[in-house]
Design a protein that fits this description.
mainly beta
Length: about 450
């Protein structure tokens, strides 16, 4: 084991020394007072992106006594723009709900810096006549709430929205996993679940569109099509998928003469087809539609890859890769909960582990592919670092609780560091429940 795994405890400054994504962090705007009314406070918390493209985010809106929190997905359109997902899923609203008015916050968040070199995100809306969903009328609110509700609506629809960066803190929450994995999501965030294919040869077929919508198609970091008129006849566009996970996004750059995009394209992915269609009810007035496509490493591995990236309704892995797991006393643990998966091109990864709440005496044991990394590892407020070596192909990291500390359950934050890429997970275990993370080590460097 010592030949494969080395553990070390380093300074907290190492964690902060990694390159920071310009979008990740906390952003805030407080509107100016008008007619002696209370200002509106808007906050975005943006988490670590998947493949540097899809960003989970939390939106908080406060006006007078109104407080609401929403979860949403942002998609990188280019190095300076994040497209805003249509759906803002309500986590909490009090003392009333503004229902679908959050859809008025659409378009892109554009990155820039002010004269003092402070980062800013400025909202650029896309004008639309249709939203695909009904809006609440002013009369549907309690009479005493109508002024506040109207104020929020007008702010979302018409006001200049410019957020300033408060800090670079990554939004760490179990919700980030649910936003990025459709099978676990409580709603549709504009992201289509993973499509598994065997061939890298793919193409985009353009469907007849009578309106002059402008669209962009992005595959991973590259724009296959950049701001083209979807009404014009075009030949099919061929492209090749990368081995492993790919992210394909259809962006609406504007909504044409009809006031909402009617563009659609058909993805031919080997023997599989998938339509990305802004005409579908859930995508009307959306800024983007994203799809995950996983290119398998060989045709014989169909079952293995489906199991590796599949989950049942209880978030329990179909195949954990762990045989008869036991706790520290050697007793079998009946429940394993998958909390995430990722693909790495690096054989060695760094794990940063810490308690983001109260340091209460929690300790955990970690194994990889049934081999112990550490046992009785204390979870401290200060990050501690472990270097982990992967085997080619699937790896399963298992987190077991050794105790429950003084505050139940045993909780911690794990950040997996792969060069300049980082992904965070919230670990919550007890004596009857393990947390699992699947990591696929991709040895293909092409």
């Amino acid at each position: 084991m010592k030949a494969f795994f080395t553990s070390c405890i380093l300074s907290i400054n190492i964690l902060s020394g990694y390159a920071q994504d310009i979008f990740v962090g906390n952003w805030e705007m407080i509107s100016a007072n008008q007619e002696n009314t209370a200002p509106i406070k808007l906050t975005f918390k943006i988490g670590a992106p998947e493949k540097n493209i899809l960003y989970p985010a939390e939106l908080h809106l406060q006006c007078d006594s109104f407080n609401a929190t929403y979860h949403l997905l942002l998609a990188k359109k280019n190095s300076r723009q994040l497209a805003i997902g249509k759906i803002k899923y309500p986590i909490s609203t009090s003392p009333f709900s503004i229902d679908s008015w959050t859809i008025l916050l659409n378009g892109t968040l554009d990155f820039s810096k002010d004269v003092k070199d402070n980062p800013m995100l400025t909202l650029s809306r896309i004008f639309t006549k249709k939203f695909g969903i009904p809006f609440p009328e002013a009369g549907s609110f309690p009479i005493q709430r109508i002024p506040t509700a109207k104020k929020i609506r007008d702010f979302l629809q018409n006001s200049t929205i410019q957020l300033r960066k408060i800090n670079d803190d990554i939004w760490n929450d179990t919700a980030t996993l649910k936003i990025l994995q459709p099978r676990e999501s409580p709603t549709y965030y504009g992201l289509i679940d993973t499509i598994f294919v065997n061939s890298k040869n793919s193409s985009i077929h353009f469907i007849e569109n009578k309106d002059n919508d402008i669209i962009t198609v992005k595959i991973n970091k590259d724009n296959i099509l950049d701001q083209i008129d979807s009404r014009k006849n075009r030949d099919n566009e061929d492209f090749q998928l990368d081995t492993g996970l790919n992210i394909i996004i259809l962006f609406a750059d504007d909504y044409g003469n009809r006031g909402t995009s009617t563009a659609k394209v058909n993805l031919e992915l080997g023997n599989t087809s998938k339509m990305l269609d802004f005409n579908e009810k859930e995508n009307i007035a959306a800024t983007f539609i994203a799809a995950k496509v996983f290119l398998k490493y060989n045709k014989e591995d169909d079952t293995k890859f489906q199991e590796y990236y599949s989950y049942d309704n209880d978030l329990t892995p179909i195949n954990t890769g762990v045989i008869n797991p036991t706790n520290k006393n050697g007793n079998p643990i009946p429940n394993n909960k998958i909390i995430g998966s990722l693909v790495s091109k690096s054989q060695q990864l760094t794990f940063a582990i810490w308690d983001d709440a109260v340091e209460d005496g929690d300790s955990i044991s970690l194994s990889i592919n049934d081999n112990w990394i550490v046992k009785g590892f204390p979870v401290l407020k200060k990050p501690q670092f472990l270097t982990v070596t992967l085997q080619p192909g699937p790896n399963v990291i298992t987190f077991m609780a050794d105790n429950l500390g003084s505050i139940i359950p045993n909780t911690s934050v794990l950040e997996i560091i792969d060069g300049k890429k980082r992904k965070s997970f919230y670990i919550e275990t007890d004596l009857d429940l393990n947390n699992l993370i699947r990591i696929y080590y991709d040895t293909n460097t092409n």
